From TrEMBL:
Protein name: Monosaccharide ABC transporter membrane protein (CUT2 family)
Major place of residence: membrane
GO cellular component: plasma membrane
InterPro entries: ABC_transp_permease
MF-aspect GO terms: transmembrane transporter activity
Keywords tagged on the record: Cell inner membrane, Cell membrane, Membrane, Transmembrane, Transmembrane helix, Transport
Compartments, record wording: Cell membrane
Source lineage: Bacteria, Bacillati, Actinomycetota, Actinomycetes, Micrococcales
Residues spanning the membrane: 20-47, 59-81, 101-125, 132-155, 167-190, 221-240, 252-271, 278-297, 303-320
Membrane topology, record value: Multi-pass membrane protein
């Protein structure tokens, strides 16, 4: 499929309808949601509410940042995210008594990153379909995590690292700071560096990138390893902030992350995307969820609305790609 799409450099021109749609849709959608929320509920546009909304979505936002690289490089999606979140959380709390909370958190990150690296080898070097590969590794890792704790809950011991994660700096929760910090690192990595250009090139046209001496296998493998690391970081932060962890701690996070990335305008077909647009997608999904709660709708409506938005976004993306391919 990647061989049939136009090169990434052509699709990123700001004058194309697809690029204009991606550029303007995010700020317009955020402003529209803020206006609707302000009219619908007096408690929506308050500092406390917006801070709580951002704090609750920062951990899964980290996964969305990693998923951006997977999609941009043409890797479709990483379905092993829930398992890597669980491994990061369970290893952190499970090893805290043996090695201390700091080393245990590092161990949790290492295990999750290794899970992502295995995905990278299977997909980047062995050319296995990303959906099949990550579904398989996710099932193995989730089964392993359930065996480690017997399906039960692991609790955190009082420690300084957990206190720090649950604290605020300048009135802003640490989880939000972590999300912003990681986004500020990854945005120039994708937009300004050779590695970022490799991701765009591999996702835009795999064979052309390979012919241009781009390390296509390494690039795809690195995107999945990065997502594994960020899923592990999400798990570590959730475990420390909640004070407990269980194997299902990351259930559904892969869909939330995919939703945020797609709403942000990153193409599911690869070759086009932006970390900043993913941040916008995280904000939109968070605001939609908050509005549904404030308006008293059932929580199931969140999946219905975001799913419909994802289908619409994918349809628009496919339309503009076909149109660009004919030109």
């Amino acid at each position: 499929m990647n061989q049939l799409v136009a090169p990434a450099r052509d699709l990123d021109k700001s004058t194309t309808p697809g690029a204009l749609f991606s550029t303007l849709s995010i700020p317009i959608a955020i402003v529209a949601l803020v206006v609707i929320g302000s009219i619908a509920s007096p408690s929506f546009l308050t500092v406390n509410n917006l801070t709580n909304v951002l704090n609750a979505n920062s951990a899964v936002g980290l996964v969305a940042l990693g998923m951006t690289f997977v999609m941009v490089s043409g890797g479709l999606a990483d379905l092993s995210v829930p398992a890597n979140v669980a491994m990061g959380a369970l290893v952190t709390l499970g090893a805290q008594d043996a090695v201390g909370i700091g080393a245990a958190a590092a161990l949790g990150l290492l295990v999750a990153t290794l899970g992502g690296a295995v995905n990278g080898v299977l997909i980047g070097y062995l050319r296995i379909n990303p959906i099949i590969a990550t579904l398989g590794t996710g099932s193995v890792l989730l089964g392993l995590s359930q065996l480690l704790v017997g399906g039960g809950i692991v609790y955190s011991q009082p420690n300084e690292l957990a206190n720090f994660v649950k604290s605020s700096i300048l009135g802003i929760p640490v989880l939000i700071w972590v999300f912003v910090f990681v986004a500020l690192i990854l945005h120039p990595l994708l937009a300004r560096t050779a590695f970022g250009r490799w991701n765009l090139a591999v996702g835009g046209n795999y064979r052309a990138a390979q012919a241009s001496a781009v390390p296509v296998r390494f690039t795809k493998a690195a995107a999945f390893a990065m997502t594994g690391f960020l899923a592990g970081l999400c798990g570590v932060l959730l475990a420390l902030s909640n004070g407990q962890a269980r194997p299902i701690i990351g259930t559904g996070y892969e869909f939330v992350a995919i939703t945020a990335v797609v709403i942000g305008g990153t193409s599911v077909f690869g070759g086009n995307g932006s970390v900043l647009r993913t941040v916008g997608g995280v904000l939109i999904t968070a605001l939609i969820g908050n509005l549904i709660i404030l308006l008293g709708f059932p929580s199931q409506a969140t999946g219905l609305i975001t799913g419909a938005i994802v289908l619409a976004a994918v349809g628009v993306d496919a339309y503009f790609r076909r149109k660009a391919g004919r030109q």
